[in-house]
Every structure is written in C-alpha cells, then in structure tokens.
Amino acid sequence: MNDNITKTIKNKFPIFNKHINGKKLHYLDNAAITHVPKTVVDSLLYFYCNINSNVHRGAYHLSEIATEKYEATRHKISHFIKSTDEKQCVFVKNTTEGINLVAFSYLKSILKEGDNIVISQMEHHSNIVPWYLLSKEMNIHLKIIPLLKSGDLDYKSIKNIINHKTKLISITHISNSLGTINNLKYIINIAHSKNIPVLIDGAQSMLHSTINVTTLDCDFFCFSSHKMYGPNGVGVLYAKKKYLTTMRPYQGGGEMIKHVSFSNVIWNDIPYKFEAGTPSIANIIAFGEAIDFLNSIDLDALFTYKKQLLHYMLNRLNEIKDLIIIGKPNVRTSIVSFIIKNIHAHDLGTIADHYGVSIRTGHHCSIPVMDFYGVAATARASLAFYNTTNDIDMLITALLHAKNIFSLK
Amino acid sequence: MIELYKDLIIDHGLNPRNKYIMKNFTHHSKGFNHFCGDAFDIYLNISNNIITNISFNGTGCAISIASSSLMTIYLKDKHTKNIYEAFNYFQNLIKNNIIKQDKFDNFNLLANVRKFPSRIKCATLPWHITINSLK
Predict the structure, then answer these.
(1) Together in a domain, A46 and A147
(2) Most buried residue, A120, A173, B22, B118, by CB count within 10 Å?
(3) What is the pLDDT of residue A157?
C-alpha cells in the first residue's frame, strides 16, 4: 500500500527523530498515548517563556493573555466535537477524572437504594471502578452488558438489562483492548426511550473518528488530550447544559465560586463550577494547538489511510503461525490484541523493544476482558496516522524473532 | 543477541523444573504482579528448618518462570536461613549488578534483567512469594 500520505505528517512529530536501541522508533502504542506535533511542543515552550500566569485572576497583561488562550482552547474543543455551547466543555485532567466527576457530582446525589448503573464487559477499569465504588457506597447494582466471543457487545441483551431503576448507562465508544467500535446510536436510542442518560467513554474515540456530540445526542462524553496528539494531564468532560447546571461541584477550591463566607458559598457559573484550583494552563493551551493541528490536516483521508494500514497489519499478523488475534468484532478499529502460543506477552514486548517497536503488553486495564478470553495478558498494537507499513513490518520481524528464540528447546 | 534471553533462561522458561501443585506442604503463599496480571503459588515442605521440598505453579513470562524454576532448584534441601541469604544475593545481582562467581552461578544468568527495569519484578516475584510464605 502507498503510505506517502503519512510521510509529511510524520515529519511534524519530533519524537520520530529518536532512536531506541539503535533502531528507529516504531511506535505502536497509540491507544495508551499519542505523540505530539512540534507545534504543541512549541506552544508549551512559548507559554513558559512568554505568558506563564494564572487564568481568570489577574488584571494584568500576562494573565489576560493566558485567560484568552485558555478559553480559546475551550472554544476550539467545543467546535471540534460540535457542541452547541462551549460552556458544556469542562476541563478535567483526563477521561478517568471526567467519569469520576459524573459519578460523584451527578449520579451520587440522585441514587436511591436498589437503583442500578449499566456498563459493559469490555470497559476499561476507569469505566468500572468509579461505578463499583458508588455501588458499594450507595447500595445499588452494577449491571453488565455481556461480551460475545467475537468481541462485540451482546446488543440483544440490553433491553432486558435496563429497567426503570437504571439511572445511567456508561459505555465505551471503542474497546481499548479489542478495538471494537460500539454502535452508540443504538444504545443511546434505547436508553433515551426509557429516559436514561448515557455517558460515553471517548478515550479512544478521537484517534479513530471525528465526533459530533450533538447528533450523537449523548448526555456525557469524556476524552483525553493525550490520546489525540495533545499533551498529557488534560481531558474534557462534555455534558449537556441541563445536567451541568444542576450537578453539585466535584471539588471545592478557588475559581469554582462566586462568593465565599464561612456560612455560605455561591457557586460559579458552568463550566467554572467544576474547575476548582489552578488548572493545567500550559497544557490546555497546548491542547488547543493540537486541535489546530487536527483542523489543518485532511483527517478523513488519514482515517481512510489508517483503515488500510489496519488491514495490512491484520494480514501480516495472520501470516504468523500460532499467533491468535483476540476478538474479531464486526466493526473494528486499529487496536489489535494478540497472543502467540507459548510466548508470554511481556517477553514479546521486550523483544519488540529491541527492534525499536513499542507495543503494549499486559491486561490493558481491562482485566474482565482478559478473564473473558481466558488469557492473563496480551500484546497490543494500536495505530495512529503517522504509522507506516514499515512500522508493521518491523513488528512482524520482531515477533518472528521471538518465535525463533522460544523454539530453541 | 538479546542478552536477556540466554539459552538456559529459555530452557527454564519453557521447561520449568518443580512446576506443580504440591499436595502435602507446610508453607504456601500466593503472589501477583499487578503490572501484568501474572500470578504464582509457591509451596514448601519444611521440616526442622530444612526445605525438604519446594514447588511453584502459575502463569507468567519466561523470566518469572525461569526465575521460579532456578530458585526452587537452589532452595531444595537448604536450611531456611539460606532463603534470605540467596534472596539478598539475587537482589544485589539484579538491582546493583554485584556478581560473584560462586555457588549462585545459575542465578547469574538472570543478571541482565537489571538492564530491563520493567522486568525486574518478574525475576524477583517468586522470591517475594517464598519469603511471604514463611511469615
């Protein structure tokens, strides 16, 4: 396949000048973190050299510039996900914090004993543990939409799982371990027909598609900058205004109040009510640069390219005898978990690293998925649009070498 | 060429010795590597402070299985105080690269784990479980 489309893109990412073990970097762990273009790095440097000051505080030049750029990122994000109002975008530190915020600021205050929350068997721990904590504290049930062996959700079961006591469905858009793309529209339609709000764990979404929260009609959508070519330490909770206005604050502190006395506090307006304390200003401004970068490239063409690259990777992996790909979902993206018989995933990871190939090995913070397939750990390769066929060829070379090492006896 | 995977490590990783569930044991402990989900059981039969039998069972990578295999071979028929002595040697070997060519010769093959920080836990896990079983 022709990967010319990605060559100019790859040059924009300084990390690819780096060598690992004397080899070029073949980075295939994009589901964990994506690399950042130079414009994002430059933004961070520029901030600390020229702007460094707090937001929404000072009546002086630097603080005004910082505030303007900080709010500009909110505007860019809102536009990027097609939110109808940028006040619906709350800055958090990552997807995990977004989910926790909804659990404790929204759901906790409306739960009654015997209620339930519905999640699925393919969730990342960050979309399990906050609900588990809440279920123990509030004496409510955690109900699970099961997985099928294919790696798809058992959609037929959903109607029987939800009931009048279901207070939220919280579900991932894309499985971080299997690459399954879930049919969100189907789930949201069922949920809304019963007046149940839906939270989407969108941690993996932006790497693989564009998102329109308005047409999707989700009630909450959480995502992270570090999985969409931005800096780490920043995430966004999108929530419909009707929820944000009635939700209680998540944390108390500066910024999130209008007035404080020892007997009364008046909360700030949304979204500031949920942004207590000094936020990650430099990173949020640099996140805005990442959005500019995504707006400056032909994303649709690159998503198409990445689909072709996925097929190339699946074909090449299938060439390896004794390699088993975990899950074969109907609609999938370029996150592929696999095992090789008699070779532990960690050994594969170490040997791949020797070739400059970075893959994730382990349970991928999805132990229920590992248990479902009866494996302790898998190797996982996940693509971004700066990857090439050469990255995949090097992975295959490393895997074949691993097989060779482990066939000595 | 990959210095971690020497032939003996592969041999013990693929064909571990003393890997079975012991029926009559006096000491047992279970341990996990939360990083990767690996889990091992260690079984000891100790009589008058002598380890008359030792085995392990579980799932793990070549490094943790080879380390378990080499550890059980070494500790069999030893006095329990040798466990601490050998573990100290092993930790020094892996964390500080202090190698003495002596009775712990087979352990020295695991010294290169030191160069792979994310794998050190794999090598030390069976030792931690064994020491836990004595508590």
Answers:
(1) yes
(2) A120
(3) 97
